[in-house]
Amino acid sequence: MIRSKQVFSLVVFLFAMSGITTGSRGADLELGKALYGTCAGCHGEDAAGIAAMNAPALAGQDFAYLVRQLEHFKTGVRGEDARDVLGTQMQGMADTVADDGAVENVVAYITSLPIPASSRTIEYDKRNGAVQYNASCGACHGPGGKGNVSMNAPRLAGLDEAYLRRQYANFAQGIRGSHPDDRYGRQMQMMATMLSTDKDVDDVIGYLLSQ
To answer: Which domains does the chain have, with CATH numbers?
Structure first.
Protein backbone atom coordinates (compact mmCIF):
# COMPACT_ATOMS: atom_id res chain seq x y z
CA MET A 1 0.00 0.00 0.00
CA ILE A 2 1.29 3.50 -0.89
CA ARG A 3 1.20 5.75 2.16
CA SER A 4 3.51 8.46 0.88
CA LYS A 5 3.11 11.82 2.58
CA GLN A 6 4.38 13.41 -0.62
CA VAL A 7 1.56 11.87 -2.65
CA PHE A 8 -0.96 12.94 -0.03
CA SER A 9 0.35 16.52 -0.07
CA LEU A 10 0.27 16.65 -3.86
CA VAL A 11 -3.35 15.47 -3.99
CA VAL A 12 -4.39 18.03 -1.39
CA PHE A 13 -2.60 20.75 -3.37
CA LEU A 14 -4.31 19.74 -6.61
CA PHE A 15 -7.73 19.78 -4.94
CA ALA A 16 -7.08 23.18 -3.42
CA MET A 17 -5.90 24.71 -6.70
CA SER A 18 -8.78 23.38 -8.79
CA GLY A 19 -11.44 25.86 -7.66
CA ILE A 20 -15.11 25.28 -8.46
CA THR A 21 -18.22 27.39 -8.42
CA THR A 22 -21.43 26.38 -6.70
CA GLY A 23 -25.01 27.51 -6.91
CA SER A 24 -28.04 26.86 -9.05
CA ARG A 25 -27.56 29.94 -11.26
CA GLY A 26 -31.29 30.67 -11.44
CA ALA A 27 -32.44 27.10 -12.05
CA ASP A 28 -36.17 26.32 -11.82
CA LEU A 29 -36.92 24.40 -8.61
CA GLU A 30 -40.44 23.44 -9.68
CA LEU A 31 -39.21 21.90 -12.92
CA GLY A 32 -36.45 20.25 -10.92
CA LYS A 33 -38.94 18.76 -8.49
CA ALA A 34 -40.94 17.28 -11.37
CA LEU A 35 -37.79 15.82 -12.91
CA TYR A 36 -36.73 14.37 -9.58
CA GLY A 37 -39.81 12.14 -9.59
CA THR A 38 -37.84 9.73 -11.79
CA CYS A 39 -35.08 9.59 -9.17
CA ALA A 40 -37.27 9.30 -6.08
CA GLY A 41 -38.09 5.62 -6.58
CA CYS A 42 -34.47 4.73 -5.78
CA HIS A 43 -33.08 7.73 -3.88
CA GLY A 44 -36.21 8.47 -1.83
CA GLU A 45 -38.71 11.31 -1.89
CA ASP A 46 -36.41 13.37 0.33
CA ALA A 47 -33.24 12.29 -1.53
CA ALA A 48 -31.95 10.73 1.70
CA GLY A 49 -31.10 7.50 -0.15
CA ILE A 50 -32.51 3.99 0.07
CA ALA A 51 -29.83 1.48 1.05
CA ALA A 52 -32.00 -1.47 0.00
CA MET A 53 -32.01 -0.01 -3.53
CA ASN A 54 -28.24 0.56 -3.44
CA ALA A 55 -29.04 4.24 -3.92
CA PRO A 56 -27.06 6.77 -1.88
CA ALA A 57 -28.27 9.97 -0.27
CA LEU A 58 -28.12 12.92 -2.65
CA ALA A 59 -29.39 15.65 -0.35
CA GLY A 60 -26.52 17.37 1.41
CA GLN A 61 -24.15 17.25 -1.55
CA ASP A 62 -23.10 20.51 -3.16
CA PHE A 63 -24.47 21.67 -6.50
CA ALA A 64 -21.24 21.33 -8.51
CA TYR A 65 -20.57 17.78 -7.31
CA LEU A 66 -24.03 16.52 -8.24
CA VAL A 67 -23.91 18.20 -11.65
CA ARG A 68 -20.49 16.68 -12.29
CA GLN A 69 -21.59 13.16 -11.33
CA LEU A 70 -24.74 13.32 -13.45
CA GLU A 71 -22.70 14.50 -16.42
CA HIS A 72 -20.14 11.76 -15.78
CA PHE A 73 -22.85 9.11 -15.87
CA LYS A 74 -24.38 10.66 -19.00
CA THR A 75 -21.08 10.76 -20.88
CA GLY A 76 -19.67 7.42 -19.69
CA VAL A 77 -16.95 8.88 -17.49
CA ARG A 78 -18.51 6.97 -14.61
CA GLY A 79 -20.17 3.56 -14.83
CA GLU A 80 -18.39 2.25 -17.95
CA ASP A 81 -16.38 -0.43 -16.14
CA ALA A 82 -18.14 -3.78 -16.56
CA ARG A 83 -17.56 -4.50 -12.87
CA ASP A 84 -19.61 -1.45 -11.88
CA VAL A 85 -23.07 -2.93 -12.44
CA LEU A 86 -24.83 -0.30 -10.35
CA GLY A 87 -22.96 2.49 -12.10
CA THR A 88 -24.03 1.12 -15.47
CA GLN A 89 -27.65 1.13 -14.31
CA MET A 90 -27.26 4.74 -13.24
CA GLN A 91 -26.01 5.68 -16.71
CA GLY A 92 -29.42 4.76 -18.10
CA MET A 93 -31.19 6.79 -15.44
CA ALA A 94 -28.96 9.81 -16.04
CA ASP A 95 -29.94 9.77 -19.69
CA THR A 96 -33.51 10.63 -18.67
CA VAL A 97 -32.20 14.08 -17.66
CA ALA A 98 -32.07 15.21 -21.24
CA ASP A 99 -30.11 18.46 -21.33
CA ASP A 100 -27.94 20.83 -19.33
CA GLY A 101 -30.89 22.94 -18.24
CA ALA A 102 -32.65 19.84 -16.90
CA VAL A 103 -29.52 18.78 -15.03
CA GLU A 104 -29.27 22.13 -13.30
CA ASN A 105 -32.97 22.17 -12.45
CA VAL A 106 -33.04 18.72 -10.85
CA VAL A 107 -29.79 19.32 -8.97
CA ALA A 108 -31.04 22.68 -7.71
CA TYR A 109 -34.10 20.92 -6.31
CA ILE A 110 -31.99 18.22 -4.64
CA THR A 111 -29.72 20.79 -3.01
CA SER A 112 -32.78 22.59 -1.62
CA LEU A 113 -33.70 19.52 0.47
CA PRO A 114 -32.64 19.06 4.13
CA ILE A 115 -29.39 17.26 4.84
CA PRO A 116 -30.14 13.67 5.90
CA ALA A 117 -28.91 12.25 9.17
CA SER A 118 -27.16 8.90 9.38
CA SER A 119 -29.84 6.26 9.90
CA ARG A 120 -27.72 3.66 11.71
CA THR A 121 -24.32 2.98 13.17
CA ILE A 122 -22.03 -0.02 13.41
CA GLU A 123 -19.63 -1.18 16.07
CA TYR A 124 -16.17 0.27 15.49
CA ASP A 125 -13.05 1.48 17.23
CA LYS A 126 -14.01 5.10 17.84
CA ARG A 127 -10.51 6.33 18.50
CA ASN A 128 -8.98 4.59 15.49
CA GLY A 129 -11.84 5.67 13.24
CA ALA A 130 -11.35 9.33 14.12
CA VAL A 131 -7.57 9.12 13.87
CA GLN A 132 -7.59 7.34 10.51
CA TYR A 133 -10.26 9.62 9.07
CA ASN A 134 -8.50 12.81 10.12
CA ALA A 135 -5.13 11.55 8.91
CA SER A 136 -6.23 10.20 5.54
CA CYS A 137 -9.55 11.79 4.58
CA GLY A 138 -10.29 14.89 6.62
CA ALA A 139 -8.04 17.31 4.74
CA CYS A 140 -10.25 16.96 1.68
CA HIS A 141 -13.65 15.81 2.94
CA GLY A 142 -13.70 18.18 5.90
CA PRO A 143 -14.33 17.74 9.63
CA GLY A 144 -16.79 14.94 10.31
CA GLY A 145 -17.05 14.10 6.61
CA LYS A 146 -19.26 17.12 5.95
CA GLY A 147 -17.64 17.78 2.58
CA ASN A 148 -15.42 20.57 1.29
CA VAL A 149 -16.58 22.50 -1.75
CA SER A 150 -13.24 24.27 -2.23
CA MET A 151 -11.53 20.87 -2.47
CA ASN A 152 -14.17 19.37 -4.78
CA ALA A 153 -14.67 16.72 -2.10
CA PRO A 154 -18.22 15.43 -1.51
CA ARG A 155 -20.03 14.97 1.77
CA LEU A 156 -19.54 11.49 3.24
CA ALA A 157 -21.60 11.85 6.43
CA GLY A 158 -25.16 10.69 5.80
CA LEU A 159 -24.19 8.10 3.20
CA ASP A 160 -25.01 4.48 4.04
CA GLU A 161 -22.48 1.85 5.05
CA ALA A 162 -22.73 -0.28 1.90
CA TYR A 163 -22.31 2.69 -0.42
CA LEU A 164 -19.27 4.02 1.45
CA ARG A 165 -17.66 0.59 1.44
CA ARG A 166 -18.46 -0.03 -2.23
CA GLN A 167 -17.14 3.29 -3.49
CA TYR A 168 -13.92 3.05 -1.48
CA ALA A 169 -13.35 -0.42 -2.94
CA ASN A 170 -14.23 0.82 -6.44
CA PHE A 171 -11.58 3.53 -6.23
CA ALA A 172 -9.00 1.17 -4.72
CA GLN A 173 -9.59 -1.43 -7.46
CA GLY A 174 -9.66 1.08 -10.32
CA ILE A 175 -13.34 0.44 -11.05
CA ARG A 176 -14.08 4.12 -10.48
CA GLY A 177 -11.76 6.99 -11.35
CA SER A 178 -9.84 5.41 -14.23
CA HIS A 179 -11.46 7.36 -17.05
CA PRO A 180 -9.05 10.01 -18.39
CA ASP A 181 -11.71 12.70 -17.96
CA ASP A 182 -12.33 11.88 -14.30
CA ARG A 183 -9.74 14.23 -12.82
CA TYR A 184 -10.94 14.04 -9.23
CA GLY A 185 -11.61 10.31 -9.48
CA ARG A 186 -7.97 9.69 -10.38
CA GLN A 187 -6.92 11.70 -7.34
CA MET A 188 -9.26 9.65 -5.16
CA GLN A 189 -7.75 6.44 -6.52
CA MET A 190 -4.45 7.50 -4.97
CA MET A 191 -6.13 8.35 -1.69
CA ALA A 192 -7.87 4.95 -1.60
CA THR A 193 -4.50 3.40 -0.76
CA MET A 194 -4.20 5.34 2.50
CA LEU A 195 -6.27 2.96 4.65
CA SER A 196 -4.04 -0.09 4.70
CA THR A 197 -6.19 -2.61 6.61
CA ASP A 198 -9.80 -3.76 6.54
CA LYS A 199 -10.09 -2.71 10.17
CA ASP A 200 -9.08 0.85 9.32
CA VAL A 201 -11.73 0.95 6.57
CA ASP A 202 -14.35 -0.42 8.96
CA ASP A 203 -13.42 2.09 11.66
CA VAL A 204 -13.51 5.05 9.27
CA ILE A 205 -16.92 3.99 7.96
CA GLY A 206 -18.14 3.63 11.55
CA TYR A 207 -16.83 7.10 12.30
CA LEU A 208 -18.63 8.58 9.28
CA LEU A 209 -21.90 6.86 10.18
CA SER A 210 -21.69 8.44 13.64
CA GLN A 211 -21.48 11.99 12.28
So the answer is: 5-20+118-209 (1.10.760.10), 29-111 (1.10.760.10)
